[in-house]
Amino acid sequence: ISISSLAIPINKNEKMLRSPVSPLSDASKHKYSNDDLTSSSRPNGSSLLPSISSSKKHKGEIQLQPHPGDFNKAIHINSENVLHCNKPQFQTEPWSPLSTTPRDCRRTKLIFDDIPRNADYFMQEAKRKKHKADAMVEKFGKALNYAEAALSFIECGNAMEQGPMESKSPYTMYSETVELIRYAVRLKTHSGPNATPEDKQLAALCYRCLALLYWRMFRLKRDHAVKYSKALIEYFKNSSKAAQNPSPWGASGKSTGTPSPMSPSPSPVSSVGSQGSTGAPSPSPIISIPQRIHQMAANHVSITNSILHSYDYWEMADNLAKENRDFFNDLDALMGPITLHSSMEHLVQYTQQGLHWVRNSAHLS
């Protein structure tokens, strides 16, 4: 009798004093989490544990003693529930139209089509946008529309590269587009205390276009530059050898042989000064070169200058981009970073997306 009477309390105690690490049943878990949220929403927040009935108060004091690990677990579960309720329903990128913040609403993504079009189509689009910009008075909007027109001219030049038009070459189209963009940048200053972030963003995008256009212009004329460089190096090498030979003019000022190509005729001043003297005449400060070499050197300088302009504008764009890191970080993340080796298609789409954000930020239609 004594053994059987003690067996029941022992079994009950074993049932009540379950291991702290053992999981609760599904029913108790459900009740526990609901009571936690209810108790945490009370004004005093005095308890995280559910209340018990008066009929099982003594048993509950033993059964529901929280283990420190369970108590921390309850706090963790409750905090996760609260944080989950505070999270936004949709996690979207900054440029997604689903975002609700004012800054995010301006960062909408353009949809680009890949339909191939000829140069005539882009030329008409460029003229239409340019005429629209011509009719505007407000300088920032005027510069923005000129920049958009320049992108259509770039597309026209790129289409000419695929199937060149007879009237103009891609190089000429890019060269005229450079002048249009430079004019657009001069319309609205991006330096000084009155410059807005939109002014700097527009200027940085224009400088990127100028850098890549100059680089593309050099690439189109690179073969010519190599030929000019070889011819000029050969000419100056021969000229230096001829300059090292003794002068054909004697001390009397009379010619003693064929004149040097570097100085085909004696200087009047040196001829007069040399009369009656035994020393050689002073060298002439003027050096005549053939017309062909002069034209070749001018063309070579014009082509190689494109490289210098390209790097200069790229550095100017980098400096402005550092002042607008958020804008260009978002643009790079969406469209992919742009480099000097990017294609004309990538340049156009990258700049179109950036100009679209600038237009929305400036509240322009």
UniProtKB/TrEMBL annotation:
What is one Gene Ontology biological process annotated in the Swiss-Prot or TrEMBL record?
Answer: regulation of gene expression
Cross-referenced InterPro entries, in alphabetical order? AF4/FMR2, AF4/FMR2_CHD
The record's gene field reads: Aff3_1
Q: Where is the composition biased (Low complexity)?
A: 268-286
Task: Please name the taxonomic classification of the source.
Answer: Eukaryota, Metazoa, Chordata, Craniata, Vertebrata
Q: Which GO terms describe its cellular component?
A: super elongation complex
Name the major location: nucleus
For this chain, the family text in UniProt reads: Belongs to the AF4 family.
Q: Where is the composition biased (Polar residues)?
A: 35-45
Protein name in UniProt: AFF3 protein
Specify the AF4/FMR2 C-terminal homology domain's residue ranges: 105-364
